[in-house]
Amino acid sequence: MALNSSANSNSKSEKPVSLIWGCELNHETQTYTFKIPDEWKYEQQLALRTICLGEQAKDEFNVVEIVPSEDSQDTTPVPLATLKPSVLPMATMVGVELTPPVTFRLRAGSGPVYITGQHVTLVPDLSWDEEEEEEEEEVAEEEESQEDSPPKAIKHPASNKRGSIAKKKKMEKEEENSVPSDDDVLPSKGTDIQRGAGRGRKPAVKK
Length: 207
Hints:
By secondary structure, the protein is an alpha+beta fold. The chain has 5 helices and 9 strands. The strands form 2 sheets. Strands 1, 3, 6, 7 and 9 form a 5-stranded antiparallel beta sheet that branches. It is rod-shaped. The termini are far apart.
């Protein structure tokens, strides 16, 4: 199983953590099994990086292979590298990512042969949970602030009110101008007497 495909298929609640791993195969320890405890519930992978000979290796061929598990349908071993100090003392592994348990075996040669790689495990990503909790708290605070704040009063436009007041004053002014004044309705008494005296006959001259 490839590391990229497994990382993309995981949810946001998990993140990969990589640890350096290595083992040694020699004439005394010809097999090594990489396995994980049963209580580990998260996905594990072993990504191989290099297989190399030690400085004490004899000038002989050293063949390293993977032994399939007992419950596997195909029990044929898979060769990984064939090393010889004078020809090829080290081999680089690219794209070899294995799911434990994995058993390595020194099929030929006396070693020592060193296998190195990365042990990748998926652990819970607590940072996503913290971010989600913070977002939920912020949303709850915004909702509470909206509920506590009083509703804003609706302001009506003042232009209509001012226009009605000006119109009312204009009408009152026109009414005042249309009412005749006292001087126009009733003429003064002095004016009437003078007019009457002028229109009457002249008094007769006494003889």
